[in-house]
Amino acid sequence: MTENTRTPIRSRLLRVAAVLAAGALAVPALAAPATAAVQPHPEKPDGPLTAVYVEVNGFDLANVADYTLEGTNAPVFDLAYIFAANINYNAEEDRAYLHLNERVTETLEDAENQIRPVQAKGTKVLLSILGNHQGVGFANFQDAESADAFAQELADVVEEYDLDGIDFDDEWSRYDLGAPINDFSFVYLVTSLREKLGEDKLITLYDIGPTSEHTVYDGVQAGDYLDYAWQPYYSAYSIPDVPGMDRSQYAAAAVDLTQTPVEMAADFAHPHAGRRGGRLPDLQPHRRGPLRLPLADHRGAVRAPDRVPG
């Protein structure tokens, strides 16, 4: 956790989150090789892309495919995140490793039913990586070799399950129990992962924790290798600032869909919402929050249709 006393926007108990992630998707050329850009569904009207974080401990990822824009076959969500795998510590080998809990593993292994229907709708599916109360995180790899080894594990899972990318969420790592935080760790990790994934996969950053404060080392900017960065607090408007990233890659407004007033959510998403933080027209709005199934007594809440077994 960070020293910021505000509450991170996602509940530890339940996560199905919605994100307004990107407006015009003409991402300018970066210093590094060009990264992936999400192309909206051809039936989707102009406007922000959307993303949903699904806490698979409680919900099927496949529910994402049940949401379409009224009057079209276009998916509501352009990106869907499997939440979450973990960065864990192997004490015997003194190294970080990728941990997939039972439900994440089930989701990946059942890709035919959980992932492919979502991708078939035109939605990108990414795996989100989260800290796990251990002394390792994205900000304290002690050399390029250890960062590269973890990046290889991430690349392997993307390839094995035909995913569309990786998301970094630096919450819940116990850095006080591990090696010192440093400036090069995340830079090494992201540059290595980008090399392994290539340009057609997505790498995103949940802009929180020590990782968000250590993105530049020896003239190399992790932002040059990232696609999007999300602002992480409910009912708040704050423009991320990741060196190397363009404003069109930022998501500044976060909304809890079950609690934030509909009027505020609409205002955050408006292209001229400058009074809530000076957002420029090319800055990308971001909406994120738990979506309870079923969603009762919440204004503006929607519920995916019940899935029929078999």
Please give a structural write-up.
With 310 residues, the chain is an alpha/beta fold. 18% of the residues lie in helices and 20% in strands. The protein is built from 6 helices and 13 strands. The strands form 3 sheets. Strands 1, 2, 3, 4, 5, 6, 7, 10 and 12 form a 9-stranded mixed sheet that branches. Strands 8-9 form a two-stranded antiparallel sheet. Strand 5, helix 4 (144-160) and strand 6 (165-169) form a beta-alpha-beta unit.
Which short descriptors sum up this protein?
alpha/beta; 20% strand; 6 helices; disordered N terminus; disordered C terminus
Break the fold down into its secondary structure elements and pairings:
Elements: E1 16-22, E2 49-55, E3 79-90, E4 95-99, H1 102-109, H2 111-114, H3 116-120, E5 124-130, H4 144-160, E6 165-169, H5 185-197, E7 202-206, E8 216-217, E9 220-221, E10 228-230, E11 236-237, E12 250-251, E13 253-254, H6 262-269
Parallel strand pairs: 2-3, 3-5, 5-6, 6-7, 7-10, 10-12
Antiparallel strand pairs: 1-2, 3-4, 8-9, 11-13
Helix pairs in contact: 4-5
